[in-house]
Amino acid sequence: MSGPVINDCIQEVINLVSDASLAQKICDKYDCSLSASACVLNYLAKRERELSLDFSQTARAEVATSLDVAYVLFSAYLIFGPMQLGFTLLCAGAIRSKNSMNVLMKNILDACTCAIGFYLFGYAFSYGHKFGQSSNGFIGNWNFALSYTTEVSSNLALGDFQTQGWHVWLFQWAFCVVATTIVSGAVAERCTFVAYLAYSFFISSFVYPVVAHWVWSPDGWLSAFNTGAAGGYARILRTGAIDFAGAGVVHMTGGMAALMGAWIIGPRIGRFDASGKVNEMKGHSATLVVMGTFLLWFGYYGFAPGANLTIATMSGAVVVSRVAVNTTLSAATAGLVTLFVRYIKSATWDTVLVCSGCLGGLVSISAGCAVLEPWAAVLCGLGAAIVFISSDYMVLYKMKIDDPVGAVALHLFCGLWGLIFPGLLAKPQYVLDVYGDHGLGTNVRAAGKYGILYGGHGQVLLCQFIEALAICAWVGTMMGTFFFIFKVAKQLRVHVDQELAGLDVTKQVVEQYDTGGSVAPQPPAERAAFGPGVTTSAFYSNGGEEAVGYGPNV
Question: Domain Ammonium transporter AmtB-like: where (predicted)?
């Protein structure tokens, strides 16, 4: 084609698009010699397809993000609502009626105190890092009082909303409340209001967040999501621990705090006699215990599946579904095994014990629920029942620790069993599905980073033990020191008169039941011989020094 003809075509295209450079681009790509208008239409049609594709991809990404955010929020609602109410009813039913309103109030204030503590400090210590930067392997150091979350949520161009947005704080706060509330039952009927409020703030703002950072932050030294470059730290054994929904982070942390609290505060008056024999102290309502158990089980479908934090992809949906199934099977198996073991031992059907067994199954499956086959979840639940029954007996009869709701056995020991279990039976393909090709998921098969019974090399199992030891050391030291300071300051335990009469009558809350047998405070002359608040008859009838809190268990 001759030069003048081409120039004429370009000029016609310029007349149509009013841009010389664009006209040249169109003519270079399309044959404009026959019709300049057809050439421009071809160009516009292709651009429309490209723009439509770009818009479609953007829209799909936004829909996926919105779906994930909605899923995380809904999971948080399930954790906070049913689970917190379940804990509250369970604790209230497992103790005597004269203290029920006191423990209800403490559970309500757990949520309030944790919200403030986690808002001001806890979330920053758990996950705080500036976008594109790292914190360190031990503790987070950014986003105090949600300052960065506010910025991220107001400026989506920063690109950190999915990991640092409002919804993430709410979800992680719900987890923190669960860990904190575990202690309320272990120290029930004798802990002061002031000490409990201080405990709730301390564990939610500092102790729990440090553990969460170790295991769940991309920068944590125990984190399976750590890529090895965070602040000069690498994940432990280049593997990290598998703790998908917090058998260690949540339950062992709360269980260890419960152990320290129950041990240091001492047993309830009358729990042990002078010889150390255990006196039975039944809770006042098995109905409340059963209701609480069902609510906790229901809430666990937000707790465990929600820990995946995403459901918008097919792979995410598969993981979430598997977690829900494994959670169900473990709880059901543990409940049945507990039922029949108790019947074999005593020829009785124990409703409250079955409830505890189901909860032990839920706790134990938390770590490995995403990386186990359903049959392995059944084995996990079976083991959980045995661990719970054994440890519950050991805590009360051997260690002489009074734990009214069995929190230590349920959360510390069942949590320990659950944390170890993925080191035995984590399936290679499921590990890869959950952790992808980064952190723990890097080179899974060649490095043998899965359960040893599948042929794994053992580093995952070792990491599980390291996490357990680290949690016990950290939480035991922090909470032991905390409770000991309050004990020395005589602010940990209520006065003997108040404990005998019932905390609903003598403290800030109003008694809601006719207890019938409340003991009125005695005049000073009657209790002078045996210390404040103890009459001669009450002292001996309730077991002497150990019973009133002066013995070796205090």
Answer: 71-507
CB atoms within 10 A of CB 309: 17
The Cα 482–Cα 265 span in angstroms is 11
C-alpha–C-alpha distance, residues 35 and 133, integer Å = 56
What gap in Å lies between CA 97 and CA 464, rounded to an integer?
A: 40
- Count of alpha carbons within 13 angstroms of residue 384, beta-carbon side: 39
Report whether 229 contacts 220 (CB < 8 A).
Answer: no
Model confidence, pTM: 0.83
Q: How far apart are CA 218 and CA 463, in angstroms?
A: 16
The distance from CA 53 to its chain's CA centroid, rounded to whole angstroms, is 40
Tens digits of residue pLDDT in 404-428 = 999 999 999 999 999 999 999 999 9
Which three-class secondary structure string do you get for 296-308? HHHHHHHHHHHCC
**Euclidean distance between CA atoms 230 and 227, whole angstroms:** 7
CA 295/CA 384 separation, integer angstroms? 20
Count of positions (residues) in the chain: 554
Contact 415, 247 (CB under 8 A): yes
Read off the pLDDT of residues 142-198 as tens digits, 9 standing for 90 and up. Answer: 889 998 888 777 766 556 777 778 999 999 999 999 999 999 999 999 999 999 999
Three-state SS across 79-98? HHHHHHHHHHHHHHHHCCHH
Longest dimension (CA), the chain: 124
The identity of residue 105, as a single letter, is M
Beta bridge partners of 76: none
